[in-house]
Amino acid sequence: MTKSPKTYGRWITALAAGAALLGVAAGAAVPAQAAERPVTGTVREPVDPAKLRAALGNLPDGVLAGAMARVGGRDGRWTGAAGNVSADPEASFRIGSITKLFTSTLTLQLVAEGRIAMDTPVQEVLPGTLPAHWAPITIEQLLSHTSGLPRPACYEQGRSYTPEEFVKTFTDCPQAGEPVTGDRITQIYMGSNYHLLGMVVEKVTGHTYTQELNRRIVRPLGLRHTYLPAKGDTSLPDDALADLPPADPWAWAEGGMVSNAPDLERFLSSLLRGRLLPPAQQKLVFEMPAHAERGFSRAGVQYYKLPDGTEVWGKTGSYGGYVNGAFATRDLRRSLVYSLVPVTDDQKQIEGRYFGLAAAAF
Q1: pLDDT digits over 296-321, tens only?
Q2: Beta carbons within 8 Å of 97's beta carbon, 6+ residues apart
Q3: Residue 287, beta-bridge partner list
């Protein structure tokens, strides 16, 4: 994980680095045209506890202070922890950009209800939020990271922004530049997309993001350990996975949630199974946009094909000292939720650990 530039928060670069597992660092091949991925390459072997224990490693060491992994699915279950982390299988942690899956689900539910459309410009929902001379940026482009939004070049490290203030770090900042549009468009992983989507959820519903999150996802699924801390709340529950310092900035709808492994497994399984979205929107979970160089579906779900051909779907997330992931095969025969506590900024070493966990789990 590289050091943050002076004008960026460390948590922003950490969130972006977290995308590596599914298609970024590994260079996952994706179709050139929008197409739904078939159900292929599913796991066939039973859960192997010995492999999983070995993948966690003998911790702490020079890379990780501790690690936790939970494997589930129809072929068996396993939970383990190593090093300086709680052995409680329901320990809570900051999930970082896995939050984006909750935000995309809320957005797609609003699309299903006809309250917005995939081709609705965000400028139409949030007038005056983006510069008037910018080309229209659609809901779909925000979801799939194809909006071309510039980076928040005027972000001040350590400052806690409101969503509206955060948006101004790239709209009112000359150093940020203009959106990448037209023939130059590509899939650029950007947390700013999901700040805007969170604002869309609030504007369309007339309720806070937290209220919609709880009403539509947390309570229906019985996610007892899943919540979005209020602005200024830097604490973690007493059952936290690791004793880490407070996370200062407020990552909100792009990366601010707290959860645990059982809740994340239940949420991801429900999302992939189609329990949270009707069929028209569920298709988007597995459909890749034309510009999918970084492996995100039209619904913002990450896709990756492991070296043995197994295909997994989910999301990575890094925030407040945790590096996490929640993935599953499309047929839900196997799932993996992990949380690592690194003691190094060497991203390649950290990647090696979670790639090793993925290889052992799937």
Answers
A1: 999 999 999 998 899 999 999 999 99
A2: 15, 18, 19, 191, 254, 255, 315, 316, 317, 318, 319
A3: 36
Dist. CA 216–CA 106, nearest whole Å: 7
Strand partners, 340: 67, 323
Residue type, 342: P
Structure tokens at 313: 């779907």
Handedness of CA 205, 211, 213, 215 (dihedral sign): negative
As given in the structure block, the two tokens for residue 219 are 């309570």
The tokens for 46 are 């039973």
What is the pTM for the complete model shown? 0.90
Give the number of other CB atoms < 10 A from CB of residue 114.
7
Taking a C-beta distance cutoff of 8 angstroms, is the pair 11, 3 a contact?
no
Task: Please report the DSSP string for 320-356 in residue order.
Answer: TTEEEEEEEETT-S-EEEEEEEES---HHHHHHHHHH
Of 74, 22, 32, whose CA–CA distance to 311 is shortest?
A: 22
Bond into 60 cis (ω within 30)? yes
- Are 186 and 219 in contact by the 8 Å Cβ rule? The answer is no
- Are 331 and 42 in contact by the 8 Å Cβ rule? The answer is yes
Q: pLDDT digits over 36-94, tens only? A: 655 555 667 889 999 999 999 999 999 999 999 999 998 889 999 999 999 999 999 99
Token reading at 248? 């200062």
Cα separation, 191 vs 234, whole angstroms: 20
DSSP-assigned states of every residue in 12-81: HHHHHHGGGGTTTSS-----SS-EEPPS-----SPP-HHHHHHHH-SSS-SSEEEEEEEEESTT--EEEE
What 8-state DSSP symbol labels residue 97?
G
- Locate tokens 């779909």: which residue? 140
C-beta atoms surrounding 283 within 10 Å:
15
